Structure formats: structure tokens, C-alpha cells
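Propose amino acids for all 111 sites.
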């Protein structure tokens, strides 16, 4: 479930990422949906070593962006280590996997 919060100009919210409920989306793959402002879906994905996203991820109308926090993600034949920012255009699709394990911080625009 995606949560959208509208903040007052001087308001903010803080939380520890590891305290956000994790949703198992496939073997070795967890997603934590983070509260965000309207127009964006923000999440953390954690994949165990040797795991692959359970299905092809499609981005029909909006793209996707993620930042590799730790570990390494493999997209096709390319490897992206911690510190890499990866973007996907509208109409793209991908199925990430990892050999080492990975933690990603991602954003999908919803409008």
C-alpha cells in the first residue's frame, strides 16, 4: 500500500528505514514503501545474494529511478555497485538481480 502525506510548508516527518514494514515480493526480495508527497512512490528494495526480482518490472507511463545504497545490482549484463544512480525511461522494462545482495532507494512518478 502506498501512503501519500501532504505536509505543511514547515512540517516534516522522519523515520528509521528498518522500522518500516517490509513486504516480501518474491524469494529473497523485500520492498519497504515509504511515505511521500503526492505524485511520487518512494521505496527501499532489499534483495538477498543470488536473488532476482520475481517478474519483469514494466514502466508504461512513467519511468523509474533508483540509487544503489549497498551491494551490487545487475541489469541485463551490466553491474551497478553502491553509489550508482540508475534511471529507466517511460516504456522501459527490466528485471534486476544480484549475486552479492543489494539495497536500493527508488522513486516512481505517479502522475
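Proposal:
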Amino acid at each position: 500500500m502506498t501512503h501519500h502525506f501532504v505536509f505543511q510548508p514547515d512540517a516534516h516527518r522522519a523515520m528509521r528505514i528498518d522500522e518500516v514494514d517490509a513486504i516480501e515480493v518474491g524469494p529473497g526480495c523485500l520492498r519497504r514503501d515509504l511515505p511521500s508527497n503526492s505524485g511520487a512512490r518512494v521505496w527501499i528494495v532489499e534483495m538477498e545474494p543470488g536473488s532476482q526480482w520475481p517478474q519483469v518490472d514494466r514502466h508504461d507511463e512513467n519511468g523509474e529511478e533508483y540509487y544503489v545504497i549497498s551491494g551490487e545490482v545487475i541489469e541485463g549484463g551490466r553491474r551497478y555497485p553502491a553509489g550508482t544512480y540508475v534511471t529507466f525511461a517511460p516504456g522501459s522494462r527490466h528485471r534486476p538481480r544480484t549475486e552479492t545482495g543489494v539495497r536500493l532507494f527508488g522513486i516512481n512518478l505517479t502522475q
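The chain has no helices and nine strands. Residues 16-68 form one domain.
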